[in-house]
Amino acid sequence: MDLRFSEQDEDFRKELRSWLDANLPSEMREAAFWADKSDDESFEIRREWEANKAKDGFAGIVWPEEYGGRGGTPTMKAIYDEEMAKANAPSTVNPLGLAFLGPTVMALGTDYQKREIIKPLLHNEVIWCQGFSEPGAGSDLAALQMKAEPQGEDYLINGQKIWTTNAMHGDKIFTLARTSSPEGGKKHAGISMLLVDMHQPGIEARPLKQMTGASEFGEVFYTDALCKQTDILGGEGNGWATAMLLLSFERGSSAIGQYTEFRKMWEEVTNVAAQVERDGRPATEDPVLRQELAAALIELECLKYHSWHVLTQTSNGKDLGFEASMTKIMWSETFRRVSDAHEKVVGTAFQVPELGQGLSIEELTTMAMWSRSCTIWGGSQQVQRTVVAERVLGLPR
Q: 134: which DSSP letter?
């Protein structure tokens, strides 16, 4: 494991910090700036800021230059994630497009798709969402029922998707549908990945309220919606293989950014613990809570060194393959552990806002609630452990 950055990497860090100092106003780094903004206002501010970031060359860090990226190294991407988290920079409004669809199009897309999708995606001219889950096909993705039937040069799409991130702001959606019946009882067959315009008659997106109060998810209804037969990614009937490639990008190669964010959260939880009381003394003096905070910190540091190990491997050109599931397990469970520590520290004050400096109780609680979902999406912990057991360790089914 190599913990050193090259001179080129450190030059990139300085350049990025300089750009953030000049282009990320101090008020945008504070939660109070966003508190009175509606979802739509917040989205548009972030969309414009991120578009300017892409214009100045700070998006698509490891994407090839031919696609508008920076052509950087995995360590430069890790530095980017770390510095963005340290600066409290706004999160991306196009996560599914940037992290998953873009690399998949580069790998499988036609020349036309590469030309029409990648640059507009990178500059936030087109916001993408992902339509995989269905009400009757969550963990068992191959059980999906949405149909796309040929009609002239188009497909006629009917069905429903659920838990669709960015459904209310998406311009287009990459979605899985059955373009033919499965053959020989193989339910993975006959599925295609379609690239569908959200702004058309026959598509209705409805928000889903989360327990945090936000509506980052939605459900999408298709009623005789249309998609050109040429707008298939990976070829007709190859949707399952295309989806598996896309999901491999979702599980990521390193968790430096997550570690940085969760470490900041742990520090804020510790600050709160110093301000609340247990039996007439600061919670930080309670031996049980101290053990809980210490255990969370140990897991954080394990995540950091695991991330460095992964980064060393990818920097040396290794394709992680199924080992990526190990990183997904680690960062999502570490996030949950820090969130659980917060809940135990504040106890019945779990919903009381603005206690102390930095992150408020309300913000920490929102993060803690969000952490519950991270062990489910992108493949649940049970699914990930099965992948590691069978595909990495070679254990029998």
A: B
The model's pTM: 0.85
Helix (H) or strand (E) holding 222: strand 217-228
Looking at the fold, whether 308 and 353 belong to one and the same domain comes out as yes
- Are both 259 and 227 inside the same structural domain? no
Residue-level pLDDT at 358: 47
60 and 135 in a single domain? The answer is no
Q: Of 93, 109, 136, which closes a domain? A: 93
Q: Note the pLDDT of residue 357.
A: 44
Residue 48: inside a domain: yes
Helical H segments across the chain, by residue range: 7-23, 31-35, 39-55, 74-86, 95-96, 102-108, 111-122, 239-250, 256-273, 287-315, 324-346, 361-374, 381-387
Give me the CATH number covering residue 355: 1.20.140.10
Q: Is residue 119 part of a domain?
A: no
- Residue 55's CB is within 10 A of a number of other CB atoms, namely 11
Which amino acids are annotated catalytic?
250
Backbone angles phi, psi at 339, to 5 degrees: -65, -40
Rg (CA), the chain: 22
Residue 85 CA to its chain's centroid (Å): 14
CA distances from 41 to 34, 45, 126, 206 (A): 9, 6, 17, 18
Enter the tokens of residue 378: 């992108």
User: CA 301, CA 279: separation in Å to the nearest integer?
Assistant: 31
